[in-house]
Amino acid sequence: MAATIEELNLKDLSNSHPGDIADVISGLNEKERILAFLLLPGELKAEVFTYFNYTKQEDLLKKLGSVDTAEMLENMAPDDRTEIFENFPDLLIKESINLLSPEEKSIALNLLGYPEKSIARLMTPYYIQAKKGWTVRQALDHIKKYGKKAETLNHLYVVDKNNHLVDDIRIGRLLMAEEEDKVESLMDYQFVSLTTTMSRDEAIELFDKYDRAVMPVVSESGVLVGIVTFDDIIDEIEKRDTEDIQKFGGLEALELSYTDTPLLTLVRKRASVLIILFMGEMLTASAMGYFEEELAQAVVLALFIPLIISSGGNSGSQAATLIVRAMAISELGLRDWWYVMRKEVLSGLLLGIILGGFGFLRIMVWQQAGFYDYGEYASLIGATVGLSLIGIVLWGTLTGSMIPFLLRRLGMDPATSSAPFVATLVDVTGLIMYFTIAASILSGTLL
């Protein structure tokens, strides 16, 4: 049941974390949610707004007056504001941007002008820069004057007369230097930066590689235009991983969270992939129809079809999961396909021998214990199942590990090699392999 405005102590609430405040206000009914939000202080209002989901953000903007909206957007960090605008209808974006001051409006339009998935959409133009000819005292005075609005004070960014980035200096090193020292004396001209056109996935890799909390963003010509902080990167990692998990689970990625996605949209996202998988499974029925005569002669073979196809599908799904994740964290690249193939062939063979051995022993134990009578050719049936499992698990492992490389080579997301897709592919080929082996071993006996 939703809380009421009377039950909340907004004065105490304002001392809480913005995310916690957003959770509490979200639990109110619609009218009281707006009232509680309006009662928050200006700067806190902007912070809390970024923690609402997109549906509540859009609803609040539509119901707030232009004065309140303008104040909130003015106080919001440019990167947070850009992320919010990305998910709003064009008309609402236009109306919101027009409420900003000329300075903030220019920043917002500049950020929105970059490609949709570029790292520039996440950057903020609020940082501290200095010239290499300054003294440490001048740099510190500059920080005191302009540092309050900066997103972070981890680094001082040194630029030349054309605003090209030439180095970044940790603030701690600046504080330990003598005030009369030149900034240039602290420079080693070694820095790592992102470019405005770089994709967010590429930026995530660089943050991980260099273990940075903040990185500068430069234009193609090297001009410093902003910085990106790790909190923004963490949000992107979460979005990327969520999308990959959804794709790998056998559905199209959702644009909104599960709770905010409309029912019909959720059904459409899932149905499209299910239809493709269903058409693939129809090939399984076709394969069984092709071997109908063999099944009629040796009905006992049908008992092990679920065992055979599930083992191949499971081994393929395991391999695909391992490789897709290794690719996602840059542990594997395209050039590693041969290494992976060799490793997975051995892994698949050993796993197949283990499962094949269990399959053979299961049939023989059941036969000897009298749990089921497989007839006089029980050992041949056991050999058929055992050898089939070796072949199918090996094939499933190899298929599951190689499909992500194939998709990456074609410029597609490896995560689309979903576990259901791999399992469906192995199901069909596994049945063909099973009946082919059975025809070879049982020819002249049961067949």
UniProtKB/TrEMBL annotation:
Membrane topology per record: Multi-pass membrane protein
Domain of life from the UniProt record:
Bacteria
* Domain CBS residues, every copy: 187-243
Please tell me where this protein is predominantly located: membrane
Q: Where in the cell is it found?
A: Cell membrane; Membrane
How this chain assembles, per its entry, is: Homodimer.
Protein family membership: Belongs to the SLC41A transporter family.
- Its biological purpose: Acts as a magnesium transporter.
Q: What is this protein called?
A: Magnesium transporter MgtE
Which organism is this entry from? Pontibacter aquaedesilientis
